[in-house]
Design brief:
The protein is built from eleven helices and no strands. The protein has about 210 residues and is mostly helical. Helix 3 packs antiparallel against helix 4, helix 4 packs antiparallel against helix 5 and helix 8 packs antiparallel against helix 9. The longest helix has 25 residues. It is elongated, with a radius of gyration of 24 Å. The N and C termini lie far apart (about 75 Å). The N terminus is likely disordered. It comes from Camelina sativa.
């Protein structure tokens, strides 16, 4: 006799299978190990974010390497790079960045942002140039990239570099991002080019209070 399965019976079978799978000793052990790793990484990230000395930063870096924690787990590699930059060790930050086996758009933007905060305009352009050389694998500058780059230009009051950023913003199709246009308006205003600043404002399709 052929038994016709209905939706309820199918769901019940799936539920029982799923429950038996989750209760297997091997899965429970693996799940618990994930929890332990996540808890350890969370603790490390909290320590990195509150780190106030280069000695402590190096100690945390050693723990990550010694425990064989992936730099991509919780973006811990990017957190360490940011910590080194925050403590003024840009050479250590750049070296760690280069040693990271996997770097994504967040990694590139983190390094550029760190250099931007320090006012290292030359290093920002150096990292951006390297990033754009890898655009074929998806590392294209985005809104976050350009906000950091324009901020560095404002910090240095650099006219030529700022105009270069304006051109790249247009090239990569980010001119529709209100925050980026506002940053450019601010940069043109800071350099005394009020006519360019006004033109950008008038061409802005969506204006907000900052504009």
């Amino acid at each position: 006799m052929m038994i016709k399965a209905n939706v309820y019976s199918c769901l019940k079978i799936r539920f029982l299978y799923h429950r038996s799978f989750l209760s297997r000793p091997s899965f429970v052990q693996e799940r618990d190990s994930w929890s332990l790793v996540d808890a350890y990484v969370s603790s490390l990230i909290a320590s990195i974010n509150s780190c106030v000395s280069i000695e402590q930063c190096r100690l945390l870096h050693c723990k990550v390497v010694k425990k064989n924690v992936s730099f991509r787990h919780g973006f811990i590699g990017d957190q360490l790079v940011g910590c080194y930059l925050r403590l003024g060790r840009d050479v250590c930050a750049g070296k760690l960045f280069d040693e990271m086996p996997e770097r994504d758009l967040v990694s590139w933007n983190s390094l550029i942002s760190g250099y931007s905060v320090k006012g290292y305009l030359g290093k920002c352009f150096e990292v951006l140039s390297r990033m754009m050389m890898r655009s074929e694998v998806g590392f294209r500058p985005n809104e976050v990239t350009f906000l950091s780059m324009i901020s560095a230009c404002v910090h240095k009051g650099s006219k030529e570099e700022g105009r270069c950023m304006h051109g790249l913003v247009m090239k990569f199709g980010v001119l529709e991002e209100v925050k980026v246009v506002n940053a450019l308006i601010n940069w043109y205003g800071k350099t005394g080019d009020l006519s360019s600043s006004c033109r950008l404002f008038e061409d802005l399709s969506v204006k907000n209070l900052v504009s």
